[in-house]
Amino acid sequence: MKIINRQKAAVINTLHGSEIRPLVDRTTSTITQCSLAEETLPPGCAVTPHRHQAIEEIYYIIEGQGVMTVGNEQQEVRAGDAIYVPRLHRHTLENTGSAPLKLLLVCGPAFFYEDEVKG
Predict the structure, then answer these.
(1) Which pLDDT tens digit goes with each residue over 37-96?
(2) In what helix (H) or strand (E) does residue 118 lie, and over which residues does it extend?
(3) Residue 119: inside a domain, yes or no?
(4) Which residue in 8, 15, 23, 84 sits closest to 47, CA to CA?
(5) pLDDT computed for residue 96 by the predictor
(6) Which residues form the domain of 52?
(7) CA nearest 47: which of 96, 111, 114, 92?
(8) Within the chain, what is the greatest distance between any pair of CA atoms?
(9) How far apart are CA 85 and CA 102, in angstroms?
(10) Domain-located, residue 80
């Protein structure tokens, strides 16, 4: 059994201003088929547009609100929304609220940096 508490998880500060905490991923375990991380996106910030070559992703909004863009589709999202991002689809999330936007990131296979293509 492997347990990672978010309070003890590593903190990654991104170039777009968010804070990502890898919970169960390739850096914390031997997992390869899926991963879980928590992200906090400050008000007015947006995830750098990117796509994944192999990874499918789910963004699950825990707190806050924003605008999610996947491919050519754009939609307002809020706490309780789960957004599926197919592989190869360019995507971004912008925090349009006045409070931090907190979300869970679920990836399959498990996230690896080499799979991400910016822009």
Answers:
(1) 999 999 999 999 999 999 999 999 999 999 999 999 999 999 999 999 999 999 999 999
(2) strand 116-118
(3) no
(4) 15
(5) 98
(6) 16-111
(7) 92
(8) 41
(9) 17
(10) yes
- Count of structural domains within the chain: 1
Per DSSP, the residues of 56-86 read EEEEEEEE-EEEEEETTEEEEEETT-EEEE-
Per-residue pLDDT, 38? 98
Asked whether residue 10 is assigned to any structural domain, the reply reads no
CA–centroid distance for 13 within its chain:
13
Can you name the residues that pair with 110 across neighbouring β-strands?
Answer: none
List the structure tokens of 80: 């309780």
109 cis-preceded (ω within 30 degrees of 0) = yes
Please check the confidence at residue 119 and state whether its pLDDT lies above 90: no
User: If you search the block for the tokens 């990654």, which residue do you land on?
Assistant: 12
pLDDT of residue 108: 98
Query: What CATH number does residue 68 fall under?
Result: 2.60.120.10
Task: Answer whether residue 26 is part of any domain.
Answer: yes
